[in-house]
């Protein structure tokens, strides 16, 4: 087994000061790939359900014969705890900057995937408000369907520095989905119950108001932004912070990048270079910063150039050390198996080729998602 590390240059400038600490702890859980492998299902799953990572953003690219949602979460999953209803019913959710809806399994769900996850029961909540609206969401090569309703959502906080000024966020009358079907085995073997989307309202299914938009509308956050820190620790340390920034988790300045679209958290990259040599995105390209995607994905030519540069071939490579001012992309590892954190996708937009900067990229930065100014910021983790 060989191990390899890759570094890519990313330079921008500026800074922002932290305010309060209101954060939800995230856990790096056992991956879907690990769970399928342990149940002897991985090989059959991969054969029967090929997928295109970009189909999350362009559903028309999805495999018509696949029924597996969330295959792009197979390698790394960061999820946290929220509660819904009065009294509170707790759920583990994946905080996803690549989608915009909140949904959890419900007692109405008939799929096998719901049998081993927490299920919301409207009858147990005094603040539940039903609607006549339905919900249907396509996650790449799979889907979920259900109904929409309103209830109180509370984000269970994590306080590394307890303070009387710090408190949990209680989001009243939040619209959310109650799943009735969750086809396929991906949800069945995922450790999270549902998904909390943190992208823009423009891509929300059924026009449902996203959680963070509701927070902003109700004045629940001190700033209209949230920040994400993905720890290298296997079990703890990661978090999403709503309305604030904690400068103790990054070094240097926050480097601000304007968004190129208000759908996903999409930015424009000028190029990708290694040791001063442009090896991909030579004419500029688009990139989506997505906490709900494990890997770093890009056009096959660009990915091939990166693999070639580090001496990798057919998923193997040698250990190389490049200058420290480059980003270190961690590797996906499970049960002694190592694979690259890169994946090829070939999708072009009207603004250029598309790259997806998933968790292996995000974990090297403290990332701020700023809705007030439609921009993101990156700073090297401390």
From TrEMBL:
The keyword Disulfide bond applies. The active site is at residues 96, 290. Its EC number is 3.4.23.1. One of its GO terms (molecular function) is aspartic-type endopeptidase activity. InterPro entries: Aspartic_peptidase_A1 (IPR001461), Aspartic_peptidase_AS (IPR001969), Aspartic_peptidase_N (IPR012848), PEPTIDASE_A1 (IPR033121), Peptidase_aspartic_dom_sf (IPR021109). Pfam families: A1_Propeptide, Asp. Disulfide bonds join 109-114, 281-285. It is an enzyme of class 3 (hydrolase). GO terms for biological process: digestion; proteolysis. Coiled coil: none annotated. Keywords: Aspartyl protease, Digestion, Disulfide bond, Hydrolase, Protease. Residues 78-379 form the Peptidase A1 domain. PANTHER family: BETA-SITE APP-CLEAVING ENZYME, ISOFORM A-RELATED, PEPSIN A-3-RELATED. Shows particularly broad specificity; although bonds involving phenylalanine and leucine are preferred, many others are also cleaved to some extent. Belongs to the peptidase A1 family. This is pepsin A. The lineage of its organism: Eukaryota, Metazoa, Chordata, Craniata, Vertebrata.
């Amino acid at each position: 087994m060989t191990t390899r590390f890759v570094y890519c240059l990313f330079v921008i400038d500026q800074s922002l000061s932290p305010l309060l600490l209101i954060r939800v702890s995230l856990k790096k859980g056992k991956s879907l790939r690990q769970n399928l492998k342990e149940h002897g299902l991985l090989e059959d799953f991969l054969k029967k359900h090929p997928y295109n990572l970009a189909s999350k953003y362009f559903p028309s690219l999805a495999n018509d014969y696949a029924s597996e949602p969330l295959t792009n979460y197979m390698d790394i999953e960061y999820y946290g705890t929220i509660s819904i209803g009065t009294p509170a019913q707790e759920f583990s959710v994946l905080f996803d900057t690549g989608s915009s809806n909140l949904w959890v399994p419900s007692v109405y769900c008939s799929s096998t995937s719901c049998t081993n996850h927490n299920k919301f029961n409207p009858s147990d909540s005094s603040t539940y408000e039903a609607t006549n609206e339905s919900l249907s969401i396509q996650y790449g090569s799979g889907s979920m369907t259900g109904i929409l309703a309103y209830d109180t959502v509370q984000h269970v906080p994590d306080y590394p520095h307890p303070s009387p000024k710090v408190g949990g966020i209680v989001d009243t009358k939040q619209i959310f989905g109650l799943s009735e079907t969750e086809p396929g085995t991906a949800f069945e073997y995922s450790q999270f119950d549902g998904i909390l989307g943190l992208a823009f309202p423009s891509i929300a299914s059924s026009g449902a108001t996203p959680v963070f938009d509701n927070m902003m509308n109700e004045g629940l956050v001190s700033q209209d932004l949230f920040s994400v820190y993905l720890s290298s620790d296997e079990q703890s340390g990661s978090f999403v912070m709503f309305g604030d920034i904690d400068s103790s988790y990054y070094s240097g300045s926050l480097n601000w990048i304007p968004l190129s679209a208000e759908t996903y958290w999409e930015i424009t990259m000028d190029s990708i270079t290694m040791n001063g040599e442009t090896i991909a995105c030579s004419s500029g390209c688009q990139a989506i910063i997505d906490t709900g995607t494990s890997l770093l994905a890009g056009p096959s030519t660009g990915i091939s150039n990166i693999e070639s540069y580090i001496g990798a071939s057919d998923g193997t490579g040698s250990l190389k050390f490049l200058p420290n001012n480059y980003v270190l992309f961690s590797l996906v590892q499970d049960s002694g198996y190592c694979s690259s954190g890169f994946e090829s996708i070939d999708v072009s937009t009207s603004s250029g080729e598309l790259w997806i900067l998933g968790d292996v990229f995000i974990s090297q930065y403290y990332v701020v998602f700023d809705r007030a100014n439609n921009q993101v910021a990156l700073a090297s983790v401390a």
